[in-house]
């Protein structure tokens, strides 16, 4: 079965809130700076809107692993914009190009866990350091937008 976009997730810039968890939308326009309706405070404030960090990707297999390890992670919880189905997370590498709907993305850098994970109800302040260690090399990948376009849930996510 071909890889696909399982879920699209965004979080608007809301005063007093961090960017987690992101909420599901059916479709969104991907631009060079990210997906419409999403605000990444870390990228904006600390990384000067680095285009290599425009879109964050994660695959369902990682979320399932985390669930099996006792962390009830849902799509959007870790800050990803695109949750992917039918792709092995460990096959995603920097420099790979994928189509997602009408958009083209280039995988750039792995996403490190952040301290804001304590806002997730199953983590809290007492488990955040354990959860951060659990997520090392499994929080997702950042991607640069090569071609802008519309992406919808269910669209193919194909290596090109």
Molecular structure report:
The protein is α+β, with helices and mostly antiparallel strands and 160 residues long. 17% of the residues lie in helices and 32% in strands. The chain contains three helices and eleven strands; from the N terminus they run E-E-E-E-H-E-H-E-E-E-H-E-E-E. It has helices at residues 41-46, 60-68, 124-135, and strands spanning 4-10, 23-25, 27-31, 34-35, 55-59, 82-85, 97-100, 103-110, 141-147, 149-152, 157-159. The chain has an eight-stranded mixed beta sheet with strand order 2-1-6-5-9-8-7-11. The longest helix has 12 residues, at 124-135. It is globular. It starts with a strand and ends with a strand.
Helix count, per DSSP? 3
**What best-fitting shape do the alpha-carbon axes yield?**
globular
CA-CA gap between termini: 16 Å
N-to-C series of helices and strands: EEEEHEHEEEHEEE
Question: Which class do the helix and strand fractions yield?
Answer: alpha+beta
Topology summary:
Blueprint: E1 4-10, E2 23-25, E3 27-31, E4 34-35, H1 41-46, E5 55-59, H2 60-68, E6 82-85, E7 97-100, E8 103-110, H3 124-135, E9 141-147, E10 149-152, E11 157-159
Parallel strand pairs: 5-6
Antiparallel strand pairs: 1-2, 1-6, 3-4, 3-10, 5-9, 7-8, 7-11, 8-9
In short:
With 160 residues, the chain is an alpha+beta fold. The chain contains three helices and eleven strands; from the N terminus they run ββββαβαβββαβββ. It has helices spanning 41-46, 60-68, 124-135; strands at residues 4-10, 23-25, 27-31, 34-35, 55-59, 82-85, 97-100, 103-110, 141-147, 149-152, 157-159.
């Amino acid at each position: 079965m071909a890889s696909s976009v399982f879920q699209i997730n965004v979080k608007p810039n809301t005063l007093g809130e961090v960017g987690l968890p992101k909420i599901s939308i059916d479709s969104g326009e991907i631009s060079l700076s990210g997906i419409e309706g999403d605000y990444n405070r870390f990228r904006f404030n600390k990384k000067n809107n680095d285009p290599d960090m425009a879109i964050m990707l994660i695959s369902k297999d990682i979320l399932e692993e985390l669930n099996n390890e006792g962390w009830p992670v849902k799509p959007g919880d870790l800050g990803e914009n695109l949750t992917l189905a039918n792709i092995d997370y460990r096959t995603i590498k920097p420099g790979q190009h994928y189509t997602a709907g009408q958009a083209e993305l280039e995988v750039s850098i792995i996403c490190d866990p952040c301290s804001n994970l304590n806002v997730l109800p199953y983590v809290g302040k007492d488990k955040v350091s354990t959860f951060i260690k659990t997520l090392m090399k499994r929080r997702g990948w950042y991607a640069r937008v090569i071609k802008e376009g519309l992406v919808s849930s269910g669209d193919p996510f194909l290596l090109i």
